[in-house]
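TODO from last week: model Peptidoglycan DD-metalloendopeptidase family protein.
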Amino acid sequence: MNIRLLIKASIIAGFLPLSISADATDLERRQSELKSIQSQINQQQSTVKNTTKQRESLISLLKKDEQAIAASAKKVNSTKQQLSKIDKAIAALDKKFATLDKLKKLQQKTLSNQLASAYLAGNHDYSKMLLNQQSPASIERLLAYYQYLNDARIASIKQLKTTIVELDEIKLQQKRNQTRLNKLVLEQQQQAKDLSQEQSQRQQTLAQLQKTLSNSGAKLEQLQIEQASLKRVIEQALLASNNNPSLDGLSSRNKLKWPTKGRIKSSFGSRRSGQVKWKGVTIAASEGQSIEAIASGKVIYADWLRGFGMVLVVDHGKGYMSLYGHAQTLLKAAGDTVNKRESIALVGRSGGQTESGLYFEVRHKGQAVDPARYCKR
């Protein structure tokens, strides 16, 4: 019995019915909004006022696009984990089935030998033993032997029945798992398609946004607005962190692991644009890669933030907090408690980024500090 071959065959034969959902309607609405803004940009770019207004509209649309991507990516990630669990369950059941099947064959052989022994012993019935005037002691021994064979035979039959019932139950579980696995695979195919459509919509929005940021002055203004947005979030996070006095905080004595694997693309304190400097580090990493909490703590912010995309902030106590930005999706919500090295988000390109990566900050009492003081390379 090859369960995996059955599963593969059923997946290949499967057909996915596509239905028009509320998500599709929302995507169409955003595509319509984008076309309207594109038309405005093409018609006139004469005044700064109009350009700024268009930029704000595009940023608002970009937020919706990236939130939709985050929702789709979260579904894909959840389905992927469920598929992994079911695959492990199927492998475990395969192993158990093989063990029980081997046991059943052994029990059948044992029972067959017992029946053969009972048949041979049956040539000496009780009446013949009495007529042959065998001694009572000899008769008692033989009767005890017959009883032993009979008890052993009954026990073997019961064991075989139990094994057969267990095997039938495993076959039923395998059938259920196979059905669930097929459904999940089809769901993931649809989710991947939805994610691709959302990413395509985001690219169009981002391309139009870049047009409105064609000069260095506009880019600098945008960065300053983004920094102000982040400052407000940190101030709010500081107020929220006062409710977590029991957390241990970070320590520079014991170096922690970086939140994700990758190359440091921009270091702390390096110039970003004009007088704006990096308050954290950017780690180049593959989209969808896991982002882990550097230490235990409590999530005090988990939402989209202008310039930083999907952002998650963890309070570690004693005024320390870590910030994770540009995520594809967030796996935790505000108020959740997280453990050290627990997966909290996935690497992405949100916040208008053209390349995937993680923006990572460590702050103490609201002030940004070099993450390299706490994280080892």
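Done. DSSP finds six helices and 14 strands in the chain.
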